[in-house]
Amino acid sequence: MHGGHMKKAIISVQDNLLPKVKPCLKEAGFRTIWVDDPRDGLNLLASGMFDLAVIEFAPERIYVDCIDKIRTISNAAILVLVSSDNYYDVEIFLEKADDAILSQFDSQELTVRAKALAKHPRAPWRNTHREENCQHYGELRIFHAKCVVARNRTPVKLTPTEYAILNLLASHPGQIFTQEQIYNAVHNDYNEVNVDKTVSNHISRLKKKLRKISKAEYIKVERAIGYHFEAY
Q: Which of 60, 84, 122, 159 is the most buried (most CB within 10 A)?
């Protein structure tokens, strides 16, 4: 439940995955309806009554143009299930979808990811607008050219890495990123490092800087899974 409104989700996955997906979404607070092909659910999504679309990617069943179509008719978040064989395509989906997870998912992780997406009505946060090379995420403004984040008239200077992490998380509100995903996204080197410690240190410093301009916790920690951004 969220704000007194029962969340609703459309599921389009193969029969063998449905018994695994439905309980996770129920635990996350969603009522669900299943469709064999996501294209069959377009009219339902266009009604505006659904908050989430969970789609299993298989080359013969769904294409990026279907996600494009969903984007033109609905503000529902899109969560894509991807098999390990097709996981190299995940970047294609994350340009348009809100999150992606392996089809061989852990039930707790899918529940947590769905809950995180449920907290973020898509339209206010994804419909960012530019103003002097600036993007707005709730109360925050991120100035790309200066690596500065501000709330009201109070700015904070970030390091390039801190900025890159904040921009990554804020651009995908509700999506949970693992420490490895964050490291790979913001670092160009392949040196052997303690990825978990490196990322957690960056996140810790970034959270301290954000507390200088707001008491809100914009970066949420999902224990043993990763981090996600929450706009206010």
A: 122
Q: At what angle are helices 160-170 and 195-211 packed, to 10 degrees?
A: 80
Q: If we measure between CA atoms, which residue out of 26, 6, 7, 169 comes closest to residue 76?
A: 7
Q: How far is CA 130 from the centre of its chain?
A: 21
Q: At what angle do helices 179-186 and 160-170 cross, to 10 degrees?
A: 120
Strands 52-56 and 7-12: parallel
**What are the phi and psi torsion angles at 83 (to 5°)?**
-70, 160
Nearest Cα to Cα of residue 76 among 58, 94, 49: 49
Both tokens of 216, joined, read 């809100």
How far apart are alpha carbons 43 and 13 in whole angstroms? 18
Digit-coded pLDDT (tens) for 18-62: 999 999 999 999 999 998 877 777 877 876 778 899 988 766 555
Cβ contact 70:76 at 8 Å? yes
Q: How far is C-alpha 204 from the chain's CA centre?
A: 20
What SS3 state is found at 133? coil
Q: How many CB atoms lie within 10 A of CB 101?
A: 20
Answering whether pTM is above 0.85, one says no
Is 45 buried (19+), middle (13-18) or exposed (0-12) by CB count in 10 A? buried
Number of residues in the chain: 232
